[in-house]
Design a protein that fits this description.
Helix content: over 70%
Structural class: mainly alpha
Strand content: under 5%
InterPro entries: MetI-like, MetI-like_sf
Membrane topology: Multi-pass membrane protein
Family: Belongs to the binding-protein-dependent transport system permease family.
Protein name: Nitrate ABC transporter permease
Subcellular location: Cell membrane
Shape: flat
């Protein structure tokens, strides 16, 4: 029953907005404003046919690989740097410098260095997506519970055991917050990297539609990006629920007290 109730809450607002959109676009309107039903038909014909294999899946594959690299690198570097104060002082100026550089501005440089291939597009996504994970991991490691840290020392928990049983679980709420931010950044950079230089992909196809003034097809690409974002968010919520089960239980117990 709770599942149906949550589903109703989750779908309620989108259904209301679609109904408002439907009634607002009845009658004579600008040809550049899409109607819900024709847009859905265009979405099915454009993105769920041949383009699913040639453009959609390659884009999603590059995005997922880049996000996996960003998360692994961000967590590993974040744990190492967050565990040592001297490392934080050493790397902080470099991080501030690199973080100020938009990863999209690196596309021309990467085109020359890496070449026009998937490696360049994945590198662009990683350069932008790694920062939320890295900085949140450093913050999470720095804010570990001092009592738990001292208890680990007393019981002789050091090295990898300390990282696995104390640092990663303690920093996991901050890490997951960083991963959530990197999902949105990665999706944006996936489209931008394909718009600049790519032979296939969602961004390339949307740009082609724009150049041909194929307005309904272009709107269907916007709809696809929204659907991809919602699916990624839903998968992330399931993963987060499993990873932070202990944290949610702790908060529930604290609220109960």
């Amino acid at each position: 029953m709770n599942i149906l109730k949550n589903l109703a809450y989750w779908l309620g607002l989108p259904i209301i907005l679609i109904l408002i959109w439907h009634f607002a676009t009845m009658g004579d309107i600008s040809p550049f404003v899409p109607r819900p039903l024709p847009l859905w038909e265009k979405f099915v014909s454009v993105w769920l046919g041949e383009n699913l294999l040639t453009d959609v899946l390659p884009s999603i594959g590059r995005l997922l690989l880049a996000l996996a690299i960003s998360i692994v690198l961000g967590v590993v570097l974040g744990v190492l740097i967050g565990s040592f104060r001297s490392a934080r002082w050493f790397f902080e100026p470099l991080f501030e410098f690199l973080r100020a550089i938009p990863s999209t501005i690196m596309i021309p440089v990467l085109l020359l260095v890496v070449g026009l291939n998937d490696n360049m597009r994945i590198t662009v996504i990683v350069l932008g997506s790694i920062w939320p994970v890295l900085l949140n991991t450093i913050t999470g490691v720095r804010s570990l519970d001092e009592v738990l840290s001292n208890s680990a020392k007393v019981y002789g928990v050091h090295g990898w055991g300390r990282v696995w049983h104390l640092v990663l679980p303690g920093a996991s709420p901050a890490i997951m917050a960083g991963v959530r931010q990197s999902l949105a950044v990665g999706l944006i950079l996936m489209v931008v990297s394909e718009m600049f230089a790519s032979a296939n992909g969602i961004g390339t196809l949307i740009t082609n539609f724009q150049n041909r003034v194929a307005v309904p097809e272009m709107w269907s690409g916007v709809l696809l990006l929204g659907v991809v974002g919602v699916v990624l968010s839903a998968i992330f919520a399931l993963v987060q629920k499993g990873v932070l089960k202990w944290y949610d239980g702790l908060k529930a117990a604290a609220d109960g007290n």
